[in-house]
Amino acid sequence: MSELTKLTIAQARDKMAKGEFTAVELTEAHIKAMEAKRNLGAYIVETPDLAREQAKASDLRRQAGQAGALEGIPLGIKDLFCTKGVQTTAASHILEGFKPQYESTVSGKLLDAGSVMLGKLNLDEFAMGSSNMTSYFGKVTNPWKSKSDAAKQLVPGGSSGGSAAAVAARIAMGATGTDTGGSIRQPAAFCGITGIKPTYGRCSRWGVVAFASSLDQPGPMARDVRDCAIMLGAMAGHDSKDSTSAPMAVPNFEAALTGDIRGLKVGIPKEYRPDGLSDEIQQVWEQGIEWLKAAGATPVEITLPHTKYALPTYYIVAPAEASSNLARYDGVRFGLRVEGSSLDDMYKKTRAAGFGPEVRRRIMIGTYVLSAGYYDAYYSKAQKVRRLIADDFKKAFETVDVILTPTAPSAAFGMDENTDDPVTMWLNDVFTIPTSLAGLPGLSLPAGLNADGLPLGLQLIGRPFDEETVFKVAGVMESAAGFTATPEGV
Amino acid sequence: MIIQGDTGDWEIVIGLEVHAQVISNAKLFSGAATAFGAEPNDQVSFVDAGFPGMLPVINEKCVEQAVRTGLGLKAQINLTSVFARKNYFYADLPQGYQISQYDMPIVGEGTLLIDLPDGSTRAIGIERLHLEQDAGKSIHDMHPSKSYIDLNRSGVALMEIVSKPDMRSPEEAGAYLTKLRTILRYLETCDGNMQEGSMRCDANVSVRPVGSTELRTRCEIKNVNSIRFVQQAIEFEARRHIDVYENGGEIKQETRLFDSVKGETRSMRSKEHAHDYRYFPDPDLLPLVVSQDLVDSIQATLPELPDEKKARFMAEYGLNAYDAGVMVAEKDSAEFFEGVAKGRDGKTAANWVMGDFFATMNSDAKYTWTNPPVTAENLGKMIDLIKDGTISTRLAKDVFIFMVESGKDPATIVEEKGLKQVTDTGAIEKAIDEVFAANPDKVAEVKGGKDKLMGWFVGQVMKATQGKANPGMLNELIAKKFKE
Amino acid sequence: MSLDKAAVRAIAELARIEVRDEELDHLAGELSGILHFVEQLAEVNTDGVQPMSSVADLTLPMRKDVVTDGGQFAAVLANAPDGVVEDQGGFFTVPKVVE
To answer: Which of A249, B6, B172, B363 has its Cβ near the most Cβ atoms within 10 Å?
Structure first.
């Protein structure tokens, strides 16, 4: 393991600015690490040649005094972001071989900021999943190992499992993720890294393969809070090509890391303490509250009464939107085609062969809840409950500045555990989904290890477009936690 | 229209859905061009082709055009409207859904007055107008086992204008389409070209016994590309329904296609699947809000519309309803007429425009409104020459022909060709004297009471003056001469 | 709501996903389980609540009516599964459709 891969983005940035090493050297170190850790399955496509070219160009820019915010930083891009000329699959067979002729706004902004792309990161197929086991291109393995059973293969979480695993394994300095119901935060928690789902509308969705349009939001995943702040600064911003993009200025997120949270009120929602919540989660949450108190913030118990309905709401809204968003994968213009005797036959064969079981299941549920006679009972009802959930948060934020909860109800689980029943699998996202439904920013950071030596994450939720407070509080917690553990071999 | 069946009299109930292509440079949700006739798939953005990650952004011009059309149809403008996805699979529908408007369209109820051949009018209700994307084009005859897909039209803005089921005959349906087309062209929101497909019509047809108020099962006849075919299709479909009912059958609600060669409708195989469009608000788009200020400013720029213009032509120029209707059918013809009639006798102007002018205009394809056979200014001046007695109406016909040939000012033509009419009493009397002298027997006959021969004398004298004698004066002088 | 095999077949048809007969029972069970789970929403009182279709507290932004895109048929056709650019004259193709 090279020393260079151990650096954070901020450290590498500062050292390159001082001329201690070049982008080419930094990139080579990561390419080597990436190749050495192919067993993780984190990348679907590696782009070492492109990365070398970009690194060279980056060094030239730096020499010319034109260094961007992420100049020379090697990143991995979740394979849900369309990248010009580089295969983009959403981890689905149906998009195998698809080479977009366009670059997503967010990945384009990262390139504009000087970053280098190492490759396309694995994910759950069409970002549907919490285990990264639904990818057509193979499972992703969590680089962390259980102390009690080192042979057990753990999931990295999902859907941004490749991103989380890559950052944790130091085969990317940072990665893009997307979060629809927890797809940045839950894998960040499982892999002991930091990730933030920004406010809906903060980052453009243009060029990101859509799962559920009213929920999808790109965001950064990185080693620590500062790196996430740096990356988000480069990724965020109004995009006139996305009608739901917020016309708001991008603050200097890094500057928000003042370390001073005195007087802030931190909401502790009582509904996030359901019966059966494990002790280790309970404890890390209590610990988090203590850290904030010690730093001068005030914990306030709050109520978010509709929390228990978030999961069923999400599992109507997200599949409904997905069933429509995924209709374009029909074998006509790109991706897989399985020939058929008629147009409909071609559609049915292509989509049966191209989509995996979880995607097919969600498309069918989504189709059903929108269909004639069921729309009001399911879809319309869910959209009403969604408003009640959003209103809960609105009310809570009248009295508190930020909300602290666990990120996930457990640490990373084994690949052979609880995957049979889809609904059980969905419970992984029970703490992240309400935030998604309300469109609020949510950050997960590692707070400690459980008895098995696996990382546990805590989630901070902020007001709309107040990522700065979230970062500020996260920075304080990060210092208090002093989380320095790394997976074996890093 | 009442159709006599074997079991009794039937009436037809017709509602029309018109898809009118919005006049705009770019598409409804993308920056690709809308022009007709480009190379296949060359006016396509990745948004129009439904590529992964592509997102729609609405074109403000299309919104304004919809509001403008709504105002032209005297309809309710909904300041907040919502785009919804209409989900279905089809080869030329790249997204797998069409972005349309469902329960909250941009325009609500309105009215359209149709002009009937007897000069009367009838109000037809407009149910709604909404904005939506057009689909691409499937071409089925270029390959033995494949259909070809061209997405140039995919994403072009359409206004779907839905009438209430208020029409009762193919003629009324034709009058509705004609009038709607006229209004759209006045508003410049759609060019109304049915051949190029920029205005397409689906007809919903059902029948019921005369006197009944029930609405029976209707069939939808898709995409009929001329007004005449719409009328034929409706009539065929109505008779088919009556046959089915009178033979004890039931009509199945379905989509049918009009075969213009055979003059019949048939069931569309591709539409056999039960439809379940699963409409829901498009999460890629937010509610469309137009301000009352915008509506007001569009209202302020509306042109005088055909109904108002027709009423004014009747009041101001004394035209009858039929003539006024003909004049306002096209904005250009109305403008031309008004250019001729302004400050002159309206009826004379109408006679000339509808007579010699239209005949010439229609005689050669080279004539257009931008290149008319005679300018309105010259035709007006010619009418002035008739009025002040410089030329007779008879001579004016010749002047008109010379104007068409030379494009010259009528006064110049009269001058050059010596067509000025003779109003010199002495000259006319001299000619009369000569005709009288040459035909003493006929003079005697007239004097003997054979009044009918008077006309013959007028003709002879006119001939002798090469038609230039002022007809009024000539008549008067001949009558006077006989009394001598 | 429990779905039977016929209902699953109808949904699969609407979604244009081929489902083999032997899969129907399993799918019916799975989908019914999911529906049963989401149906707990019925207990929430939503009288007078407006459905929330977007969290963005904005109205629709608009673009100017300017041609900024298109003129790129090769790029549009580049990923076509039939490889249509050379031999099909710039069209996508599908199995022949009878209207």
So the answer is: B172
